[in-house]
Write a structure and sequence with these properties.
This protein has 423 residues and is an alpha+beta fold. Helix content is 30%, strand content 30%. Strands 10, 11, 12, 13, 14, 15, 17, 20 and 21 form a 9-stranded antiparallel β-sheet that branches. Strands 3-2-1-4-5 form a 5-stranded parallel β-sheet, with helices on both faces. A 4-stranded antiparallel β-sheet has the order 6-9-7-8, with helices on both faces. Strand 10 and strand 11 form a beta hairpin. The longest helix has 21 residues. The mean pLDDT is 95. Bound molecules: adenosine monophosphate (AMP).
Amino acid sequence: MNILVVGSGGREHALCWKIAKSPLVSRLVCAPGNVGMAMLAETRPVSATDVAGQVALAQQIAADLVVIGPDAAVAAGLADACAEAGIPCFGPTAAAGQLEASKAFTKAFADRHGLPTARYGVFDAAPPAKASLAGFSPPYVVKADGLAAGKGVAVASDLAAAEAAIDEVFGGRFGAAGSRVVIEEFLDGEIGSVFALCDGRTSVMFGAFQDAKRAFDGDVGPNTGGMGVYAPAPVLTEAVVDQVRTRLIEPAFAGIAAEGAPYRGVVFCEVMVTADGPKLVEFNARFGDPECQVQMLRLESDLVPYLVAAATGRLAGATPPVWRREAAICVVLASKGYPGAPETGSLIRGAEVDFGPNVVVFHAGTARRNDGALIAAGGRVLNVCALGVDVAEARARAYGAIERIDWPGGYHRTDIGWRALAR
Ligand code: AMP
């Protein structure tokens, strides 16, 4: 098979790493790809949201499958364009991808289909949004409605901070994503990321993880796209994951199909595990970043047959994926200043060495300087991932590798996995 992977982050590097191991694959092309992906596959300078360019590339390489990485490509309608061109595509149509593109859509969808989620209000101006805070109690949850790379959510401890967060959304910090604001009831519990594949009708559960969204140790600081993740997560017991499947994932797939937009691809269901069971925080219409890095490390089965089956409506009868017994962890190395204004261009030494069979370093925002040296070129830059007999061993291996990487321009959390170890 010829496969085109669309995207350029750590998630797409991990997908390529796993796809490249499949005996079914003869040619692997990534667009636009990154420094890490270029070591595994051919890369082409076509942006993920250049829909016409991606379809033309898929035709040029006679792609048997297009795999969409980032949400922006889903929202841009890449799956729709692939369908028109007759190219099998792993990733939902823009209509089905609405599950992620708008928080207001997701909340209304959850109401229509009886999915347990936080009480909320949607506002398109600051004064009514601020007035609504009286109906909630602190901490207040304030979200920009659209896609904001995981950074559009503020959990504010008092009214003044909540009002400032509302002003920030309407002040244009999140661009078009900030034309509406969603105010939500605060859900108390532990967060989890649960994944499922769907082919439009049939779904298959695809792993559960716990990520760390806050920038700094101890889960404080601003929300980010994700600073680390690990699995298995003790909070996501088999019973909890089963509740996520029956109360959230299956009704969501059935609901979106009933609304005329059958879902093909992966859904990433972010849940708060509360005393009343799991509640929906949000859906994402793609693999997680950095969840995917840990998912690919732990996946024993060949990924490609699942991607093909989901893209072509043939998941019925698929066996559940087999996971490695080992735990896995991913620690994100970010540029100083992330998630605000990351300082890029700094030199990274020691990241491209052999760290042994249990450590893999995926690239996200890296670039090559003219002399070939590795430099930072984005917010989240490297993903140091490791396997171990348990979370403690995986974690020790990942941090051991990080110690050998010399990057004064970066920072990382030193406590990824603490919730598992605290139990
Ligand atoms: P989101 O972008 O919707 O995934 O939210 C980012 C993070 O904010 C989540 O991972 C949670 O940690 C936190 N969060 C979002 N919504 C809520 C809520 N209703 N209650 C408590 N925490 C929340």
